[in-house]
Each structure stands twice: as structure tokens, then as C-alpha cells.
Amino acid sequence: MNTIDESKIELVTAxxxxxxxxxxxxxxxxxxxxxxxxxxxxxIAAALYRSYYYGxxxxxxxxxxxxxxxxxxxxxxxxxATTIYIMKIKGVDAGFAEFVITPEFVEIQYxxxxxxxxxxxxxxxxxQWVIAKAASxxxxxxxxxxxxLDHKKALPNYQQAGFNIVRQEQQQRRQxxxx
Length: 179
Hints:
By secondary structure, the chain is α+β, with helices and mostly antiparallel strands. It has four helices and seven strands; from the N terminus they run ββααβββαβαβ. The model has no long low-confidence stretch (mean pLDDT 90).
């Protein structure tokens, strides 16, 4: 069952940026008191996944997976190539990162912080951890994409971390209608 009423969604034009990092660096991430990273055990239930996905992405119109059926969503998130980590700070879910591992590259499919942790200095730390984790899979490239509906600092932060734009395009993206 999907959890967003599709009649409340409109299509808007957004610029999507496709980024990659070639030969990712070996990063040493300092441990932070009270921070734990845990892989989600499979099978991952659709409701649990959506709580992370929409918890992080609601403000940025992450709707694509909210309109999928439970079966279709479970097939994606429980695929062999997919691994999902949760960042907990002092026992509270603070963010999640979803990786898709292919023979040629690792894609950071989704990544972000829960709203209560945004703007508190956790973004750079989590991004560095995500890059280090992606690099640990031993692939020659890390890929990700973002768009103009995402957090305004997403693209500059990715570029500062070492990602390069390899292409960009205008796309129709889902957005909740403004009331």
C-alpha cells in the first residue's frame, strides 16, 4: 500500500545533477561519542523503510518510494545489491544511507539526516562516513545524484567532498501541492 495520496502530487521541473567520485580516498572517520551505525537486517518491512526515507526526505519531496506498493518497495530495498545503514545518536535515529553496489560502482541511492539533526553540525560528519563506507566496498567509482528540490547545501557539500558533476538535466519531479 502506498502512503501518499497521488492526487496531492504535482509535477515540477527541477535540475537533476549526476555526480561521481573516481578513486575515492581512504578516509579515517573519527569516532564520535554516542554515534552508532547499524545495518538494517533484511527483510526490511516497507513501513520501516518509509519511516526513514520520508523522515529524511519529506521536506525535500522524496515521494518516489512513497507511491510504490509495499511489494514493489520491498523488492527494491531487499535486493541483494542494496545495503541500508542507520545512524543513531545517543540511541535516536538520526539519519540513513542506502547503497546500491554494482560491479562498476557504488551508488549512494539515498542519504540524509532526520530533521531534528539538520543544521547541528552532523551533515559533514555523516557525509564523510557515507563516502568512507561507499569506498569500503572496493569499487572504482562512487555515484550519487541530487536535484534542485533537495537541501540547498546538498550540491555544494557533495562537490566540496570531492564529487564532480558528470551531467545534469531538467526533469519532471514529484512535489506535494502547495496548500
